[in-house]
Amino acid sequence: MTEWILASPCGSVAITVTLDGAGALFYGITRNGVAVLERSRWGLVCRDRVFRDGLVVVHAPVVSVVEQDYTLRHGKQRSRRVRAVRATIEVTNPEGHGLAVELSVSADTAAFRYRLLGASATVTLDEELTTFRFVNPGRAWLQPTSPADGGGPAHENLYANGVEIGTATEASSWDFPAVFESGAQWALISESDLDGTFRGTRLASRPDGREYSVTGSVTEEGMGYGDVHPTSRAPWTMPWRFIALADSAPELVESMAVWDLATPSRVDDDSWVEPGRAAWSWWSENDSPRDLDALRRYVDLASDMGWEYSLVDANWTVHSEEQIRGLVDYATERGVRLFLWYNSAGTNNDSTEEPRDLMHRADTRRAEMARIAGWGIAGIKVDFFHSDKQLGIQHYLGILEDAAEARLMVNFHGSTIPRGWDRTWPHLLTMEAVRGAEWYLFEPRFAEEAVWHNTILPFTRNVIGSMDYTPVTFSDKVRPHLTTAAHELALAVVFESGLQHFADSPEAYLSAPEAVRRQLRGVPVVWDETVGLAGEPGDSAVVARRSGDEWWIAGINAATAKEPEVLDLARLGLGAGVWEVLGDGETRDAVVVERRDAAQPFVRPALGAGGGFVARLLPR
After folding, report:
1. What stretch of H or E contains 455?
2. For residue range 99-150, what is the model confidence (pLDDT) as tens digits?
3. Are 557 and 537 in contact (CB under 8 A)?
4. Quick one: average pLDDT of 268-288?
5. How far apart are CA 412 and CA 581, in angstroms?
6. pLDDT, averaged across the chain
7. Mapping DSSP to helix (H, G, I), strand (E, B) and coil, where does residue 446 land?
8. How far apart are CA 437 and CA 497, in angstroms?
9. Are the C-beta atoms of residues 239 and 214 closer than 8 Å to each other?
């Protein structure tokens, strides 16, 4: 047996790699001396070559320290400096085919990826042998993959809330990101830097004890189009798999692993990329995209609130080009720009929502993008992808590449999860892949579910990238919501999105108390710093975010009421100022406004079931 240990620059995280007597590769991960994963498997089964056992190491790993500084156009942290130790282990199988496993270890992340060696040969992957085997029992927050039917997989299921590690699902798989509390550690598993040579992956539905296997797409995805087995030419570099580690759930919120491992920006000049806030008409008025008067009212809302954008959703094609260009002019006069909705089809879905068949083929897509960019359209919302197969991933990336050329910003809906693409393509402002506020319209039980579901998302889905939940819905749909007005208001800060769509009606926002409107007018979408302060998934979440010199703190609560509590803000380095705090009132829709001296300890307000608060630090 041969063993190597690769530790992070500060020594906190380490990967131990073992080649056992049968020539099989295993790995384990420790943090601060505590074992998190043990005897987890590496390996691939390709159509013409297998890397399972009988492997021989070509040479000892060569270790290097990698330092990088980068800046994002939006997200939880704008400027980032990361330092990691990297190494590559090269092995050959009994037939002499080569495989490299690249490792990266930083202060809070362990990551690895495969690279098939050789030249020119076309290789098909049949099975991946990767596993994650937890040392200790504990709890897990896992999202069952939605069925590959007319609406999936769209990664919009509810999370299993704190189930035992090793729990199986009747779904085809568990989605990334997957979060675990095991022993004294919190861990989030996901992937980064996925390109068009591979497929999106997940965790198999039935773990072997506490060992989870990696699996891929199912045949039915994307209407059956595309192979579930990815194919590429060697050398073939596959996506990073990473394990983000933390001492607590709030610390996990701060992870930047998915961006640290992503390919740097491919857009030479991204000065045209402008994250912002948008009015969205569809949630309140489903037929509004067909009604120019309604669309103008939402443009007026965006203008009144100081928001940068308004979204024109599905079926806007009932209007002529002249009418849409007139709407663009109307918005421009009021300091607002428009996003237009598109069906991603082609062949990958059977949705009849229009426009369709304009984003599938590259030539058609480029012509359409050039056309609407000429109108002054700011960006596109592309929906209903329904596939994480290699063909589906190529579809996403083709849209991003062509949108960059046309200088159109992008919002993906009915989509896969973020995988660091917004670092590579900074005009990708947000992605859905979440059960958001639209589910108030689809599922009567969502009113009850949102109370606890909302508190899971900051520690799971939103950790890996912008999330278009479409928050801050004060109005009732299908069934009265059970979250308070302060909870809804807090979502604009608790949930990060480079394009934050506010889903309620002009009447709901403009009739709100002045303090609420002031918060909605001022809330940023670009954050320079994010600090997790308190909570855990399924119970509560409190997050602090800084934009420039201004700090915001927001919290949401699930079903168990909480007494006031002092929050430790030492890490924020606050100066003088006054907190304006909006919290729960005596009724669901009431909001209490307080002013507090920032020099005093910050006491989180009492939180009822489904309650919340949001605080903004104002100059004295």
Report:
1. helix 446-456
2. 999 999 999 999 999 999 998 789 999 999 999 999 999 999 999 999 987 6
3. no
4. 98
5. 33
6. 97
7. helix
8. 14
9. no
Q: 123: which 2 tokens? A: 């290789």
**Dist. CA 306–CA 301, nearest whole Å:** 8
**CA atoms of 186 and 178, how far apart (whole Å):** 11
Bridge partners of 431, per DSSP, are 412, 467
What's the full length of the chain, in residues?
620
Residues 6+ apart with CB under 8 A from 557: 455, 487, 539, 540, 607, 608, 609, 610, 611, 612
Helix 292-305 / helix 321-333 crossing angle, nearest 10 deg: 20
Cβ atoms of residues 126 and 47 within 8 Å: yes
Q: Which two tokens stand for residue 556?
A: 């949401």
The answer to whether the beta carbons of residues 59 and 105 sit under 8 Å apart is no
Specify the pLDDT at position 150: 66
Q: Please state, in angstroms and rounded to a whole number, the distance separating the CA atoms of residues 576 and 430.
A: 34
Note whether 36 and 185 are within 8 A (CB).
yes
- Predicted confidence (pLDDT) per residue in 349-399, tens digit: 999 999 999 999 999 999 999 999 999 999 999 999 999 999 999 999 999
User: CB atoms < 10 A from the CB of 233, how many?
Assistant: 13
Closest of 154, 136, 241 to residue 192, by C-alpha: 241
SS3 of 279-312: EECCCCCCCHHHCHHHHHHHHHHHHHHCCCEEEE
Q: What would the pLDDT profile of 6-26 be if each residue is shown by its tens digit? A: 999 999 999 999 999 999 999
DSSP string, 533-553: EEEETTTEEEEEEEETTEEEE
Q: How far is CA 524 from the centre of its chain?
A: 18
Q: Facing residues of 75 across strands?
A: 526
Cα–Cα distance, 594 to 589 (Å, whole number): 17
Mean pLDDT of 580-590: 97
| Two structure tokens written together for 193 | 């830097």
CA 99, 42, 203, 126 torsion: positive or negative?
positive
Closest by CA to 400, choosing from 389, 388, 390, 412, is 412
- What distance in Å separates the CA atoms of residue 364 and residue 356, rounded to the nearest whole number? 11
Task: Return the active site residues.
Answer: 383, 438
User: Would you say 211 and 40 are in contact if contact means Cβ atoms under 8 Å apart?
Assistant: yes
